[in-house]
Fold this protein.
Amino acid sequence: MKYTDIEIVRAKGQDTEALLEYLKIVGSETDNLSFGAEGVLLEVEEERKYLDQQTKSLNDIQLLAKANGEIIGTASLIRKKKRMSHRAEFGISVKKAWWGCGVASTLMEYILEFAKSTGVEQINLEVRSDNKRAIALYKKFGFQKLCTFPGFFKIDGELIDFDFMNLEIC
């Protein structure tokens, strides 16, 4: 990808249509996500309401990486409730054309800054066991593998293992 300035912004309701379209694109580019080319199958208004809530949240965040106004990546941190409120679940995706360009690392840095500022003590994630690129990113930021969940996904009849990873922040 030709170098361009990448902007990291908090997702807002006005990003709904572009984000849903982005999710269809990244879903079609890889089998590493929980959805495919169909995207996340949310109604526009349902997603808009979710993004509006995220914008106001002190505990959760949905970030967008943009290049020339186009969404090229997204990352989220969703705080658990009640007895698990010291933990948060992390998710990330980047358009394939931008893999290896530092977008995921930049998103991760913003997420970790948010987590620390809001008192999150642990961040959890799930990653395909054969997704070496993503695992290397997570290890670079200090995540450790907890275990492997056999057959976590089933794509076209094939069972796919996932690793559960954790980062202790405190």
The CA atoms of residues 3 and 101 lie 9 Å apart. The chain has a mean pLDDT of 95.
